[in-house]
Known about the structure:
Layout: E1 4-8, H1 12-23, E2 27-32, H2 35-41, E3 47-50, H3 56-60, E4 69-72, H4 78-90, E5 96-99, H5 103-112, E6 116-118, H6 120-133, E7 137-142, E8 147-153, H7 163-166, H8 168-172, E9 175-184, E10 192-196, E11 211-217, H9 218-225
Parallel strand pairs: 1-2, 1-4, 2-3, 4-5, 5-6
Antiparallel strand pairs: 7-8, 8-11, 9-10, 9-11
Helix pairs in contact: 4-5
Amino acid sequence: MANRFAVIGLGYFGEHIARELSAMGAEVIAVDQKMENVEAIKDDVTHAIRMDATDEKALKTIGLQDLDAAIVSIGENFTGNVLTCALLIQLGCRKVIARATDNTHARILKLVGVHQIVSPEEVVAERLARSLVQEKILDWIPLTEDFQIVQIKTPQTFVGKSLQEIQLRRKFHVNLITIKRHKANKHHEGDGEDYIIGVPTAETVIENNDILVLLGSEDRVESLLKE
Length: 227
């Protein structure tokens, strides 16, 4: 069964989180008060709903008990952000992740009982620093202090081998979530598009220029990048 998330607040940060989760195969419920934001994302997520997330009755309709996590990213209205988080916790959502724009907001969200607080500005700064130091890391999402999701360029030693041969989990102690692969345009050299191949199997063969989406600890990923 696919992981199931709600993303509440579809500004720049919320919209991109929703799209990334959906691209990784998760079921995503995208929620916003503005109809234009809902319309913009409806074709890329499982469900897109126009809703006031501070309305307890409305919030109950999205099946909170079935969510792996709810990500609250209401950037323009911090009061609404806090109230939504409080309602989600009160209604029994198992994990509430909230966006904080500054340290004061982070402290308030912590007092409310939010399970995980993220600062997009800090994440962007760390992503940039990592990409400058380690060119093989294309993108990075922290999950906890110890674990992260990373997109990396395929090491050349992996090309032409199956996942069974490479033994990522046994040798490097990382999990492969999916592979982003480039599909070339036969009629226009250099053109084409990237696509997600879905859930890889032991027989999946790594191709040149594949992008691997991995889950693992920082030290294990760095060990793999030395290949």
